[in-house]
Amino acid sequence: MRRKLPGDVPPSSAAAGTASSASEADLAQLSTAIAAGEDLGPFVRRAFACGRPEPLLAALRGAARDREAEIEELCRAHFHDFIRAVDDLRSLLADADALKGSLSASHSALLSSAAPLLASLESFLAARALAGNLSSALASSRRCVRLLALAARANAHLHAGNHGLYLALRAVDAIDRDLATGPEPLPLPTLRQMLLSVVPAVRAHAEREISREFSDWMVSIRAASRHLGQVAIGRSAAARQRQEELRSKHRPLEECITLDDDGVGDLDDFAAAAATADAADGAAAASFDLTPLYRAMHIHQTLALGERFKKYYLENRKLQLTSDFDVIAATPFLESHQVFFSQIAGFFIVEDRVFRTGGGLTSRPDVDALWDAAVGKMVSVMEDNFSRMQTANHLLLITDYAALLAATMRRYGYPVGMLLDVLAKHRDKYHDLLLADCRRQVAEALAADKFDQMLMRKEYEYSMNVLAFGIQSSDITPAFPYVAPFSCTVPDICRIVRSFIEDSVSFMAHGGGGDTYAAVKKYLGRILSEVVDASIQKLVDSGGGLSVSQAMQVAANMSVMERACEFFTRHAAQLCGVPLRAVERGRRDFPLRRSRDAAEALLLRLLRAKADEFMRQSDGVNWMADDPPPGGNEYANEVIIYLETLTSTAQQILPLPVLRRVLVAVLAHISERIVDLFLNDSVKRFNANAVTGIDTDLKMFEAFADSMSSLFVDSDQESVKNEMKTALVEARQLVNLLMSSSPENFLNPVIREKSYNKLDYKKVAAISEKFRDSSESYFSTFGTRGARQNPKKKSLDTLIKRLREAS
C-alpha cells in the first residue's frame, strides 16, 4: 500500500481548486467585457449551460453596485452645473413666448397680403393645365402626321418597284415601332386599326414581290451560267496557249545554265500571263448580276426570315444542279460534254461569288457539299463514257475540255483531284486507242508506198518532208528538183509519230498526271516498237512481192528512220520542257533494230536469189574443156555487171556501212555457190582448164571487191579490201588447192591452217575425186602404160586416198 507523502493533496481538494481558478478567470473576463461595453450574452449562456448562474448574478450585482457608486460620485461632483442649466432653461422659455407672439403677428400680415397671390396662382394652374392639354393634342397630331407620312412614303416606295421594297419596309417598321413602343395609344382608333392592318399587308406584299423576282433571277442565272462557264473555260484555254507560247519562246533560254538580265525579264512574262488570266477570271465573275439575290436576302433579313431564305436558296440551287446533270441525257456525251462542263463551271463560279460576297448566305460546307456531288456525277459520267469510247480523238477532245474545266475550277479554289485522277486512270486506254489509229495509218502508208525515191520539186516540199523531221544528211540546201534517198513512207511515218507525240503530250500535260516526259517517252517507245517496227517487219517478213530495188529502198528508209528517232526524242523533250542535255545523256539504242535487220535480211535474201539465178547459167561451163575460157565464164560476167549496176544505185541511197555488209554477204554467197558448182551432181568430171576458168572468174570477183573498197573513204580501205576478199576466201582456197602442184600439202596441218583453213574435208574429198588432168582420157592408159606417172596426179591420188581413210 502506497504511503501518503506530506505534499500530497486529496483529489477532492484538487478539483475544487481547479474549479475556483476557472471561476476567477471567468469573472475576470466578465469584468473586462463590462468595462469594454461588450456583449454579455455569451457569459450568460455559458453560466446557465453549466448550471451555476449564481456566481454570474453575484458578479453582475457587484458590478451594478460599483456603477451606482460611480453615478453618486458624479452627481455629488456636478450638481451645481445642473442647477445653472435649469435656470438657463427658464429664461429661454420666456424668450420663446415673445417669439410666438411675434410670429402670430407676422402670420396675420402674411395672410392679408397673400390673398391676391393665391388667386393669381389658381389662374396660373388652370392655364398650365390647358397648355398641357394643347401640347398633348399637338403631340398626338404630329404623331399621326408622322405615321401618315411614313405610310405615304412606304406607298411611294412600293409604287417605285422592287428597288424600293427595302425602303418601304423600313417605313413600315418605323410605323410598327411607333405603334408598339409609343407612350400611349393613338387617339384615333380608326387610324390605328388601319395602320395595324396595313403593316402586315405591306410585308406580305414585299415578300411576294421579292420571291417572284428571286425566282426570275434563278431562271436567268441558270441560263447565264452556261455562257459564264464557256467564257471562263475559253479564257483558261487562252491562258494555257499563252503559257505554251511563252514556254516555246523561252525554250532556248532554258537550255542555258545562267540567265542574263533580258532573260530574267522575259521569264517574268509567265507571271504576267498568269496575272492576266486571273484578271480575266475576275472580269468573268463580275459579268453577271447578283443584285436581285442580294436584294432578296436583304429583304428576307429585314422580314426576320433570313434563315428560311438561306434554306430556300440552297434547296433551289441543289435542284438546279441536279437538273444541270440532265443536259447529257438527251444527246450523246461527245456532242454535249462542252455544254455539260460549261454549265457546271458557271454554276460554281456563281456559287463562289455568292459565298465571297453574299454576307453569309452560303457557307463553305454547303458549297463543298454541292461541289462533291458535282464531282461525283462528272466522274461517273466520264468513266461510263470513257469505257465505251473507241476513238482516241474523241477521248482526247473530252479529256482536254475536262482538263480545262479542272484548271478553271482550281483557280476558284475548288479541289479537282478526283477529276484529274479519272483522266490519269484512262491514260493507258487513250494511248492504246491512239496506237491502234497510228497502226492503221502506218499500215496504209506502207501499203500505198511504191518504195521509189521521193522527188521534191520545191523548197517548201523539202522543208515539209525533210527539215521538219531533222532527217537531212547535210545542212546545205540541195538543188531542186531533189531526189531524196528515202521513199514517201518516211515523212508519212514521221508525221504520224510526231502527231502521236503531240497528242500524248497534250493528254499528259493537261490531264495525265505524273512525270509527263517519262510517260511520253514510254509511249513513244511503244509506238516505235509496237507500231512502226512491227508494221515494217510485217511488211518485210511477208515479202509482199518486193523487188531488189524496193527492198534496197526499205533498207535505206530504215537508216533515215534512225535519224528520225533522234528527232522524235528531242521533239518530245521540247514539248515537255526537258533540257536537251538530259535527253542526249539518256539516249537509248535504235528502237527499230528488228525491222532494220529484217530489211537488210530481205535485201540479202533477194540479192542471193538473184545471184543464184545468174549462177544457174553455169550449165554452160565446159568442165572438160580442151582450153581454158579466155575471158572467164559467161555467168561471172553477168554477175559482175549486175553487181556494178546494183552498187551504183545502192551507193546513192544506202549508208556505206549497210552497203558494205550487203556486198560482203553477196560475195560470200557467190563464193559458196562456186564451191557448190564443183559439188553439183551434174558435174561428173572436170579438168584443169575448167579450174583455170573458175580461177579467172574469181579474179574478176576479187577485182570487183578491190574496186568497191574505194567507196568507203571513211573507213580503212585496206581493212575493207581484206574484208571483201575474205568473203571469197573459200572459193579461192579451193581453186588454189586444185591448181597446186602438190595437192597432198592439204594434209599438212601447218600448211592447211595457213592456206586452206576455210576448206572442209568432205568437200575437198568429193571435189578431188572429180578432178582429172587434161592429159588423162578414157583410153590414154593403153598408150602410156609404161610411162612415168604425173607427180601432180600422184599427189592428188595420195590426197584422195588419205581423205577416204580419214572419213
From TrEMBL:
Where is the region Disordered?
Answer: 1-20
Q: Which InterPro entries match?
A: EXOC6/Sec15 (IPR007225), EXOC6/Sec15_C (IPR046361), EXOC6/Sec15_C_dom1 (IPR042045), EXOC6_Sec15_N (IPR048359), EXOC6PINT-1/Sec15/Tip20_C_dom2 (IPR042044)
| Top-rank taxon | Eukaryota
Is the keyword Cytoplasm in the record?
yes
Q: Where is the Exocyst complex component EXOC6/Sec15 N-terminal domain?
A: 60-233
| Gene3D superfamilies per the UniProt record, alphabetical | Dsl1p vesicle tethering complex, Tip20p subunit, domain D, Exocyst complex subunit Sec15 C-terminal domain, N-terminal subdomain
The entry's localization annotation reads:
Cytoplasm, Cytosol
Q: Which UniProt keywords apply?
A: Cytoplasm, Exocytosis, Transport
Any GO BP annotation: vesicle tethering involved in exocytosis
Residues in Exocyst complex subunit EXOC6/Sec15 C-terminal domain copies: 419-770
Keyword Transport assigned: yes
What's an example GO cellular component term for this entry?
Answer: cytosol
Q: Which family does it belong to?
A: Belongs to the SEC15 family.
Q: What does this protein do?
A: Component of the exocyst complex involved in the docking of exocytic vesicles with fusion sites on the plasma membrane during regulated or polarized secretion. Involved in polarized cell growth and organ morphogenesis. During cytokinesis, involved in cell plate initiation, cell plate maturation and formation of new primary cell wall.
Protein's name according to its UniProt entry: Exocyst complex component
Natural source organism: Eleusine coracana subsp. coracana
Organism lineage: Eukaryota, Viridiplantae, Streptophyta, Embryophyta, Tracheophyta
